[in-house]
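Take a specimen:
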Amino acid sequence: MAKLAEEMNPEGSQYQILLSCPFGISPSQVSVDFSKSHDRVPHPDPDLEDSISQVWEKRAQGNSSLFNGQKFRYGSYSLDGDGGSGGTNEVQHVCLRLGLTDYRTFVGTNLSSLWEKFLVTSQDDSIRCRHTSSPLGNGAVIETSDKKIIVLRRSNNVGEFPGHYVFPGGHPEPTAVGIDYHQLENNVQTGELLNKKVTQEMFDSIICEVVEETGIPASSLSPPLFIGISRRELNVRPAMFFFVKCSHHSDDIPRLYSSAEDGFESTQLHTVSLDELKMMTSRMPGCHHGGYALYELMLQRLKNIKETSVSAKEDDT
C-alpha cells in the first residue's frame, strides 16, 4: 500500500518512503511510462542552470575517470489497488514514470552544494523535484538461506557516501535496452515495446548489480520482488528496492565476494541479523536507510498475515 512519507517517518528523518509495496510485486505488476515528458525541466534562473556545467567541470578536473553516462530519471508513479473487493487496498499494479538524464546533470543538481535551490515549493513531489536530475537508483535486500542480510561497506574511493553501509545495488541502465537518447516514436506499438523493455530492465539490472558486487551467481538468486521506493532527504536522491532470496548459507558469501567483478566499489561484505542491520542504518545513506524501512514493512506484513491465519484456524476449532 502506498503511504505518504510524513505518515511513516518522524520529522527530520534521513529518508522518505515514496511508495511501499509490502507484499512484494513481480514484473507483471509493474509497467513503465518512458517519455521525454518526464525529463528534468531546466531551471528558470540562468545562473543556477549555468552552475551545472561549472560543478561538473570542477569535479572532472579532479577525477579523470569520471564518465557522463545516461541514467533513467525518476519522475513519479501511479498505482492501482484491488478496488476494495477484498478490503485490503494493496497495490496490484505500479506504473513508473521515467525520463532520461545523465551523470553530469546529477552531479550539477542533486550533488551540488546548491541542490536546495533547484527545488520548488510544492506538495506535489514531481513538481518539487522538476529541476533536479534525480536518477533512479536501485538496491537489493538479500536474505541468505539462514536468514542473514547482505550489507556492503562502500570504498573510500566512490563518489557518494564513501565508507558507508549499503545494500548491493546501482542503477538500471538505459544503454542496456538500447537507449542513448529519446527517439521520436512513430507508432504506439513501438512505444509500448520500449516501455516493456525498460520495465524488464528494472528487474534485470538489480540481479546484475548483485552478481557484480557480491559474486553470488544469478542461479542462486530468486526472482526479485519490488518492495518500494525511498528517497534520502539530503539532495533528494531516489532509489527503488527489491527483496531477493539467496540459496547460499551466509558462511558461503565471503568466498563468493572475494571474486566479485565490482568488488573494488566496496571494502567489506557483512552478513548480519535483523537486529544488527537495524544498528547499521545510522551509517547508511538515507535512501538505503529507507530500503531497510521498506524491508521492515514487508516483514511486518508477513507477520500480520501469519497471525491472522493462526487466529482463523483457532476460530475454526
Summary: The helical segments are 5-8, 46-61, 103-108, 125-128, 188-214, 253-257, 274-280, 286-316. Confidence is low (pLDDT under 50) at residues 1-13, 83-88.
